[in-house]
Design a protein that fits this description.
binds fructose -6-phosphate; 8-stranded antiparallel β-sheet; 3 domains; 17 helices; Rossmann fold; Glutamine Phosphoribosylpyrophosphate, subunit 1, domain 1; 7-stranded antiparallel β-sheet; alpha/beta
């Protein structure tokens, strides 16, 4: 949610380096963007715009002199509409102090009032602008002191960067929103996510909550926001490849990441046996086990609930992370909370984990970003190793998370080898399934339904959360109203929505619920629905059939993939950019 990026180094094209880096972070927020560059003559040049950054090539011609220090921001609006004034960076009225901010300053209204009474002139409706004025007010004490004083007055979650006219320094601080420092030769980068600087360096240092860093030409000094004490940081090498974070020959990240599912599962399959067994033991000894996540990760958690029940006969209760407060009161030191997250930075999930930590429960996180806050606060982590996921709609991380849960459920039932064998076979069938003919078939179905108002998706058993996830994927990228239901729930209300020609996707794997879900399909068809069957076998009730591999306990994986493709095709045919759906952002770091 909002991408921020800074460069400080010997190269004199800081504005363009930041421009390039911001493009790689655009998936985090894309309603407006802006850059501030400190020029050789000391003055700060600011440029900001509404809209996507993608088309802009260079800013250097606008600068009056070269720049070696710049900060940038791509926005996902929280406070204040999408306007040029509200786009970051924000400055005090004299342009002396310039900041960018990701997060929310909860007490901004009272601070703004106080600053206005102090004759400060505001030029935006954002909460963020207060920080620039607060720092500017105390600049006679020096930039660093003024920054510390300002930040101590702010409540809420944030990652911020600040520069000023008077000193050659970049200051960054975080509380609750990610910030990573990349270190090259005499060069520093600060970003919300690694892909922004992956082309320059893989050596990183993580800024933790309640910490700040001051970067000058002599190096980076980390300290505690509270005590002011200096903190030593370890340089860590990350193993992401530049190509993994690029689109390559694909038109969009979403389809690239869908196709990568041919490979991503193989990395999951190799998760160490000892680690899986250790976590399985923790779960089996617990008095209560919960599994939580938000959005797609929440549906994965729901799939996990079925996997533990069906494979290990173990109850692991799913809760949407944003509503976990309901169950948190029952946690004890013997409880386990499993968090599912791609980014590891989702604010609602982190808040839920805070409740779990307060109760002394053990935390296991299943994350893609191993360096994330979630991973770092967990007792145990199971990294899914799906590589960078850039499309806002999660695809490859989803199936990798389901795969890890499949292994963990098998480990809980003392049959991990069986789980691995199952996933190896599933990988083979995914490879066979993902061929151009298959994609064309789904494209032609998408072409036939692309102009509808509503789509229904139904499933039973584990296919119920799969139906909800499929519906989520379709609505978020195609903007067609799509709802996922349990097949058995149809007749209790949702069937009222069915009329002539409403496409209804029926997920019918080869499992115990097949006959029942086919009966539900008949009920829909009797009321005029157009039935799209997603199943290993064709059935008379299907108007269209998308063939799926039969994969036993891995059916959730083989049945979600074709529906990810259908969602993608619907978006593209309706001329929407599936990588950047409206109103959304990857990594939701506000509550
Ligand atoms: C939808 C999607 C979101 C995320 C949710 C949680 O396609 O990707 O619903 O699943 O915002 O994000 P993470 O997994 O980063 O915690």
């Amino acid at each position: 949610m909002c991408g921020i990026f800074a460069y400080f180094g010997p190269k004199e094209k800081a504005a363009d380096i930041v421009l390039k880096g911001l493009k790689k972070l655009e998936y985090r927020g894309y309603d407006s963007w802006g850059i501030a560059a400190k020029q050789k003559d000391g003055r700060i040049y600011i440029e900001k715009h509404v809209g996507k950054i993608s088309e802009v090539i260079s800013l250097e011609d606008s600068l009056t002199s070269p720049s070696h220090l710049a900060i940038g921001h791509s926005r996902w609006a929280t406070h204040g509409g999408v306007t040029q004034f509200n786009a970051h960076p924000h400055a005090d009225e004299n342009n002396k102090v310039v900041i960018v901010h990701n997060g929310i300053f909860e007490n901004y209204a009272e601070l703004k009032q106080e600053l206005i009474e102090d004759a400060c002139l505001f030029s935006s409706e954002t909460d963020s602008e207060v920080l620039a004025h607060l720092i500017a007010k105390n600049m006679d004490e020096g930039f660093e002191k003024a920054f510390q004083k300002a930040i101590s007055r702010l409540k809420g979650r944030y990652a911020v960067l600040a520069i000023c006219e008077d000193e050659d320094k970049l200051i960054a601080a975080r509380r609750g929103s990610p910030l990573i420092i990349g270190q090259g030769e005499d060069t520093y980068f600060v970003a919300s996510d690694v892909p922004a600087f992956l082309a320059y360096t893989k050596e990183v240092m993580y800024l933790d909550d309640e910490q700040m860093v001051v970067i000058t030409k002599d190096g980076a000094t980390f300290s505690s926001l509270e005590s002011g004490k200096t903190i030593k940081k370890r340089l860590i090498s990350i193993d992401w490849e530049v190509e993994e974070a690029e689109k390559g020959e694909y038109p969009h990240f979403m389809i690239k990441e869908i196709m990568e599912q041919k490979d991503t599962l193989s990395r999951t399959i190799n998760t160490a046996e000892a680690k899986l067994n250790e976590i399985a033991k923790l779960i089996s000894r617990s008095d209560r086990a919960y599994i939580i996540g938000c959005g797609t990760a929440g549906y994965v958690a729901h799939i996990g609930e079925y996997l533990f029940a069906e494979i290990a006969n173990k109850e692991v209760i799913m809760r949407p992370a944003s509503e976990f407060h309901l169950s948190a009161r029952f946690l004890t030191e013997q409880s386990v909370v499993i968090a599912i997250s791609q980014s590891g930075e989702t604010a609602d999930t982190l808040e839920a984990l805070k409740l779990a930590m307060n109760a002394g429960a053990k935390i296991v996180s299943i994350v893609n970003v191993e360096s994330s806050t979630m991973a770092r606060i967990s007792d145990k982590i199971l990294p899914i190793k799906a590589g960078p996921e850039k499309a806002v709609a999660s695809t490859k991380a989803t199936t990798a998370q389901i795969a890890i849960l499949t292994l963990l459920a098998h480990a809980s039932a003392n049959k991990l080898d069986e789980g691995r064998q199952l996933l190896i076979q599933t990988m083979g069938s995914i490879n066979d399934m993902l061929n151009p003919r298959y994609e064309d078939h789904i494209t032609s179905i998408a072409g036939n339904i692309m102009n509808v108002q509503d789509i229904m998706v139904i499933g039973r058993g584990i296919s119920h959360p799969v139906a909800m996830e499929a519906a989520m994927k379709m609505k978020e990228v195609s903007y067609i109203h799509t709802e996922g239901f349990a097949g058995g729930e149809l007749k209790h209300g949702p069937i009222a929505l069915i009329e002539e020609g409403v496409p209804s996707v029926v997920i019918a794997p080869d499992d115990n619920f097949k006959n029942e879900i086919l009966s539900n399909a008949m009920e829909l068809k009797a009321r005029g629905a157009l039935i799209i069957g997603v199943s290993p076998e064709n059935a008379e009730v299907f108007d269209y059939w998308i063939k799926t591999p039969s994969a036993k306990h891995a059916n959730a994986i083989t049945h979600i993939i074709p529906l990810q493709i259908l969602a993608y095709k619907l978006a593209v045919l309706r001329q929407h950019n599936p990588d950047m759906p409206r109103n959304l952002a990857k990594s939701v770091t506000v509550k």
